[in-house]
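User: Structure please.
Assistant: Input sequence and predicted structure:
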Amino acid sequence: MKRFSRCELTKELVLLLTFGVTILLLYSAFPDYYYSTLDVQAQLQQQQPMLGIKIISPSTGQQVPVGELIISGTSTDNVTSDCTVYADWNNTKPFQTATATGPGGVNDYSKWTFTYTDDYHLITNGTNNLTSKLSCVGDDSNVGTANLTKFYSVNVIGVTESSERQALDEEAQQNNGSNFSSSPSFPSVTRGNDDNNNTATTTTPPEDPTIYWDLEDFD
């Protein structure tokens, strides 16, 4: 009986020892894997550039004439990065390629412009959503910059020339109307003394255009 108990106890010790050694081995190997994974993630984050794009003109909420419109903007692109700027109207695809105007030449989208024409879409009456897109693509050796995109949008109000002129005319009428009295004044008429030494009187002509004569004028 005692031998059996000792035998079971020995087996339990062996199992515990084996389990403990396995845990120690895994623990000793895990930090290397954990920290190596963190190093890879940190390297990828360092490789990823800070992307940005913005429409400078027009600004959101601005009124613009219907028809053709030129927009301009900036981005974080430069001559060394492989990026392109695109634009669209009211999410109408495909995106249209903008024109690079940066100091680095035709591939420098640090400054850019795009013209909405009838070849793609004109600005219409009412709200127009204009979106710019910065797209950067890297090669296999630079996975940190592969397929990164940024967007920037503005909403502008398209107005026709007639409606704009009407608004200006209404504003001008309101400004001019404040300079006039609501009721016109009439000039006063003064009569001199007659032969009977009557006192001079001042009268205001009535609105009725009929002429009234004083009988004393015929005495």
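The longest strand covers residues 148-159.
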